[in-house]
Amino acid sequence: MIAAWLVILCTATPVLGETKPGRWDKEIEAFLEADRAKAPKKNRTLFIGSSSIKRWETLERDFRSSVGTVIRRGFGGAGIQDATRFADRIILPYKPRQIVLYAGGNEIRRGASPEGIATLFDAFVKSVRAELQGTRIAFVSIKPSIKQWANAAKIKQANQLVREYCSDDMRLDFIDVWTPMLGADGKPKPELYVADQLHLSAAGYAVWTAAIKPVLAENSRAYYNSPERWESTISAFEEADEKQPPASGGIVFIGSSSIRGWKTLKQDFPGHPVINRGFGGSEIIDSIHFANRIVVPHKPSHVVLYAGDNDMSRGKTPK
Q1: Which of 1, 24, 78, 252 has its CA 20 to 30 A from that of 91?
Q2: C-alpha 291 chain-centroid distance
């Protein structure tokens, strides 16, 4: 498969349909202005792409229960190459744990070949991976549309090539929205589109949510349940303990960022040896997992745990 991809990526001569320089300046500057006013937190899920992302007004609400807070960066008419071009401004600074890209349809409309779409996606992946090696990237398949049905064969081929590309990398996901948007007659379901027969209706976005949410939720569970996520933080605690071992019989405070950010903890509990072992974003299971390394060795008289809010924001039930 890898050898085949080398042939495709080296020999394809796509028509890319470059957009005009400066076309996106106002929209990109608006994103940057919003970031300056309130910088998005790191390790979030980023949705980026064309008007289908821009017009998804319920996106943040649709995914809050499964992946937490998301970042939406859609700009109408954009292609994969535009997402790559602006990566240093509206992708890399966020350091997202996963990226959801929807683009490619505009390039097909402007004459790009299926092989060209695969080449553009390869360039996007390499651009992101040069700075964010651990970030997962999901490609949402180019959707069918009534207005662009004449390009259906090219879109299907482009989707298949990107699917094959993703299958060679465990950190890439291909999410199929093409299939669930077709009716029994093999044509796009009219109710999934607004009047222009191109952009999605609320029903269309519901189909997308149903296709995308399970993939992102599983990725989030794997990310947050991975002990490797915290290894550098836990190792730093252990190194600090080796240099200056805390006294036994103290109070260990362990949990999420509310513990980690408690700068006055020692002053607030005078007369008690206090040890802060908070690590932002952690869940209850993380405190359990690392207790033998950052709690038990201190032989504390008391352990104070604050955790659970991250569990709830990621979809865990009270039970």
Answers
A1: 1
A2: 29
Say whether pLDDT at 3 is over 90.
no
294 neighbors 254 (Cβ within 8 angstroms): yes
- Quick one: which of 79, 95, 73 has its CA closest to 29? 73
The half-sphere exposure of 193 on its side-chain side, counting CA atoms within 13 A, is 17
pLDDT tens string 56-101: 999 999 998 888 889 999 999 999 999 999 999 999 999 999 999 9
Quote the Cα angle for 90-96-213, to 5°: 110
Amino acid (one-letter) located at 296 = V
**Where do the domains of the chain lie?**
2-224, 232-313
- d(CA 3, CA 154) in angstroms, rounded, equals 23
CA 148, 149, 150, 152 dihedral sign is positive
2-224, which class in CATH?
alpha beta
221: pLDDT strictly greater than 90 = no
Closest CA to 158 of 8, 6, 11: 8
Per-residue model confidence (pLDDT) at position 2: 44
pTM: 0.71
Mean pLDDT rounded to a whole number for the chain = 90
- Count CA within 13 A, CB hemisphere, residue 304: 15
How many residues does the structure list for the chain?
319
Q: What is the CATH number of domain 232-313?
A: 3.40.50.1110
Torsion angle, alpha carbons of 131, 137, 139, 140, to 10: -130
